[in-house]
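Appendix B. One record, verbatim.
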Amino acid sequence: MNKNKEKIQTMFGWVSDFKLNLYYKISSILHAPTMLYYKIRNYNIWFRIPSNRTDVLWALNKPLTITYITKKDGYCPTCHARAVEHGEADKDDHFQFMHADYYDNYERSIFSTDLKYSHTACECEDLIFEPLENYYSSGGEEGNPLFTQDCAQWDIDREKGWHHNPLKCHQKQLLPRYWRRS
């Protein structure tokens, strides 16, 4: 009885080892061409025009289009809403919160000179690094060095129209006054 059990266990071990080795060989054979494809697909050329703060990007995955990214300063509605909530600013003090970075993305074909607006990506560095600063200032008790807020980055599409009330598009991102992460 024990001999049959040992034979079954050794045969099962041999089959499982064979399957595992076969899996590793197949995956290593498929890995090299896949990584070569990703290197080619993700290849891009990027350079900056410093006179007007514009980045030019050409990517191999979209070879017939060139992307232009223009950086400008803009309004941060989340910082303004927090300051109004805490009584540090008035509702009309929009000019004090012009510290967010707005990146306007334009695309054009390599055969034409007409720029087509794509979207505007916005970010606020104060909100991005706030959890890290809280972590350092509290000695590691509050905040998180690996966490950033959802309201730190947002997109705006000008073709659909600007919101008359910018806080309307950020309503989901604003946290209650006494919110604590559990």
